[in-house]
């Protein structure tokens, strides 16, 4: 994942910062508790494609 791209990407819902989890290939929004998938180094920033993080999962 390109570092410059990570600097400008924000959550499409709350416009907050995202955390890249390389091992899961996801961009995580902590306030929204959503994980956006990264497929072939391309972030999929669609709410319908995001995984809802369960309350017990650490962000």
TrEMBL record:
GO terms for cellular component: cytosol. Gene3D superfamilies: 2.20.25.10. InterPro entries: Trm112-like. It comes from the Bacteria. It holds the Pfam family Trm112p. In the C-terminal section; belongs to the UPF0434 family. Belongs to the UPF0434 family. HAMAP family: UPF0434 (MF_01187). This is UPF0434 protein SCD_n01892. It comes from Sulfuricella denitrificans (strain DSM 22764 / NBRC 105220 / skB26). The lineage of its organism: Bacteria, Pseudomonadati, Pseudomonadota, Betaproteobacteria, Nitrosomonadales.
